[in-house]
């Protein structure tokens, strides 16, 4: 599976802690991230991550392009709903793309944990199969 990781500035530490906790599961998948988030995760976990531009420079749009081309299977976007800054990635555009293409997206740590645990138990091995059933 191809998993995209994005975090607003105030959620980057939470993303790092999350990826440390789930390193064994994440290491079995192809990971990509916006620039700063990807760098921080890599420095802390040594996970192999394809890094795009930082969010303010269009990294979220690069990930959005991959979603539109069915090259992303899961998005974890830890967002700060209270104090997000104008320079941070736009969650609305990515949520719309995920909904259009039936790509699961977690916007908080609880949902992210549920999705990764489902992957680990292999209850859902291919989100695309679910989409095609309906």
UniProtKB/TrEMBL annotation:
This protein's GO cellular component annotations are: cytosol
Q: Which UniProt keywords apply?
A: Lyase
Q: Which ranges carry the MGS-like domain?
A: 1-134
Q: So where's the catalytic machinery, residue-wise?
A: 60
Task: Describe the reaction catalysed, as an equation.
Answer: dihydroxyacetone phosphate = methylglyoxal + phosphate
Superkingdom of the organism of origin: Bacteria
Q: Which residues bind substrate?
A: 8, 12, 34-37, 54-55, 87
EC numbers = 4.2.3.3
Task: Respond yes or no to whether keyword Lyase is given for this record.
Answer: yes
Q: Which GO terms describe its biological process?
A: methylglyoxal biosynthetic process
What SUPFAM superfamilies does the record tag this protein with?
Methylglyoxal synthase-like
MF-aspect GO terms:
methylglyoxal synthase activity
**Annotated family:** Belongs to the methylglyoxal synthase family.
Checking HAMAP family in the record gives: Methylglyoxal_synth
Q: What does this protein do?
A: Catalyzes the formation of methylglyoxal from dihydroxyacetone phosphate.
Q: What is this protein called?
A: Methylglyoxal synthase
Q: Which organism is it from?
A: Maledivibacter halophilus
Q: Per UniProt, what is the name of the gene that codes for the protein in this document?
A: mgsA
């Amino acid at each position: 599976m191809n998993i995209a990781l994005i975090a607003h500035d105030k959620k980057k530490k939470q993303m790092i802690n999350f990826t440390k906790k789930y390193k064994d599961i994440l290491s079995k998948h192809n990971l990509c991230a916006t620039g700063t988030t990807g760098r921080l995760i890599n420095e802390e976990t040594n996970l192999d991550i394809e890094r795009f531009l930082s969010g303010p420079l269009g990294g979220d749009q690069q990930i959005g392009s991959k979603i539109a081309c069915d090259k992303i299977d899961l998005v974890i976007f830890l967002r700060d709903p209270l104090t997000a800054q104008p320079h941070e990635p736009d969650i609305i555009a990515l949520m719309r793309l995920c909904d259009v293409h039936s790509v699961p997206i977690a916007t908080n740590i609880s949902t992210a944990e549920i999705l990764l645990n489902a992957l680990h138990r292999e209850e859902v091995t291919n989100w695309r199969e679910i989409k095609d059933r309906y």
